[in-house]
Amino acid sequence: NFDFADRVERVEPSATLAISSLATELESEGVDVVDLSVGEPDFPTPEVIVEAATEAMEAGHTGYAPSQGVRDLREAIAADLARRDLDYAADEIIVTPGAKQALFETFQTLVDDGNEVVLLDPAWVSYEAMAKLAGGSLSRVDLSASAFQLEPALDDLAETVSDDTELLVVNSPSNPSGAVFSDAALEGVRDLAVDHDVTVIADEIYDRITYGVEPTSLATLDGMRERTVTINGFSKAFSMTGWRLGYLAAPEELIGQAGKVQSHSVSSATHFVQHAGITALRECDDAVNQMTQAFRERRDLLTDLFADRGVEVPVGDGAFYVMVPTGDDDARWCEDALSEAHVATVPGSAFGTPGYARLSYAAGEERLREGVNRLADGGFLSL
Ligand code: PLP
């Protein structure tokens, strides 16, 4: 009979778990499930990165790493960020086991009990849980009426953000909508953040996976560098989800505080993985471009497949997800799509946006065709 802490009781189990356990159960019964629920590239990690990790292990980089991260990697990250006009020194970066840990540390560092955290819905599933674990209270701005774009919803954001707001989370390109926010939208965020003295998390983990647009990094805007925590990682662009490598970049005073959370929790990211990260940043532009090109072709295919069936999906210019309308009960739609059509998707309500399901197109073309056919044949697209 445990007496659980309030903080864990505040957090709901992930809505995606029900779907993935049902999918696993079906697969174990021999059912061919088209899994469009996963948020990871279906490509192998580029070979040079694997080789770099092997070499690093053989060279003996198997002990504890410096908590903040291997200096050469932090320098490579700083150089990489400079390509996006972001001006961070190696000392303003903490290398973390995954961007998720970088986000977790940021929430722990900034959010006190009762502090207001503002999310833009649909928002990636873990922001809410991380805010709540830190004791924060949530306010949400819905972007679904504006095809998931922020610019038309700036007035709503202005009504939500106030002097009481501690933190605002901006994720562009977005998981789950794929939306890349316009410069005007980011300038609107800047104006509000400066007026109300709000810190902003800029989760830019999909910044390399864009189609014909160059996303602007929030911290490049005047007045933002000193109030932004830039989050990024290797999972998506380099297909390194299982390696657990990401980082946060922020002014040094924040790094000092967040560094305490890191050193007293995970210690560091895995030592030899950090060495492989240097290779990823320095030698993998072609591999990243090839994967991104494949995602782009799949996105266009998926849009055409839906259009052929009369379904309009708001297509984003980044990441590898689309939100498909489901009618009010998205959880039910997803459960039925899985149990009847054997297509796994994630309910929009998991991202704060009921009425949609998130489909990932990090899957082969044949799987995408098959998935849409099954949904259409099962009546899931005729709302
Ligand atoms: N941020 C967003 C928007 C994501 O979609 C994800 C992964 O799904 C993460 C952060 C965390 O990525 P990782 O911890 O694998 O670096």
Structure explained in plain terms:
With 383 residues, this protein is of the alpha/beta class. It has two domains: 6-44 and 286-377, Alpha-Beta Complex (Aspartate Aminotransferase, domain 1), CATH 3.90.1150; 62-283, Type I PLP-dependent aspartate aminotransferase-like (Major domain) (Aspartate Aminotransferase, domain 2), CATH 3.40.640.10. It contains 13 helices and twelve strands. The model has no long low-confidence stretch (mean pLDDT 96). Residues 39, 98-100, 124, 171, 175, 203, 205, 233, 235, 241, 246 line the site of pyridoxal-5'-phosphate (PLP). The site of pyridoxal-5'-phosphate has 13 residues, from helix 5.
Topology, pairings included?
Elements: H1 6-9, H2 15-28, E1 34-35, H3 47-58, H4 71-82, E2 93-96, H5 99-110, E3 116-121, H6 125-133, E4 137-142, H7 154-160, E5 165-171, H8 183-196, E6 199-203, E7 228-233, E8 246-249, H9 252-263, H10 271-283, H11 285-308, E9 321-325, H12 330-341, E10 343-344, E11 346-347, E12 356-360, H13 365-377
Parallel strand pairs: 1-10, 3-4, 3-5, 5-6, 6-7
Antiparallel strand pairs: 2-8, 7-8, 9-12, 11-12
Helix pairs in contact: 2-12, 3-10, 4-10, 5-6, 5-9, 11-13
The chain binds pyridoxal-5'-phosphate (PLP).
At the fold tier of CATH, the topology name of the largest domain is Aspartate Aminotransferase, domain 2
- How would you describe the shape? globular
Q: How many structural domains can be distinguished in the coordinates?
A: 2
> Main sheet, how many strands, which sense, barrel?
7 strands, mixed
Based on CA atoms alone, the radius of gyration comes out at 21 Å
Number of helices: 13
Element-level helix/strand string: HHEHHEHEHEHEHEEEHHHEHEEEH
> How large a portion of the residues is in β-strands, by DSSP E?
5-15%
What is the subunit organization of this protein?
single chain
The helix content, as a percent range, equals 40-55%
CATH top level assignment of the largest domain: Alpha Beta
Subunit structure: Homodimer.
Cofactor: pyridoxal 5'-phosphate
InterPro entries: Aminotransferase_I/II_large, AspAT/PAT-like, NHTrfase_class1_PyrdxlP-BS, PyrdxlP-dep_Trfase, PyrdxlP-dep_Trfase_major, PyrdxlP-dep_Trfase_small
Family: Belongs to the class-I pyridoxal-phosphate-dependent aminotransferase family.
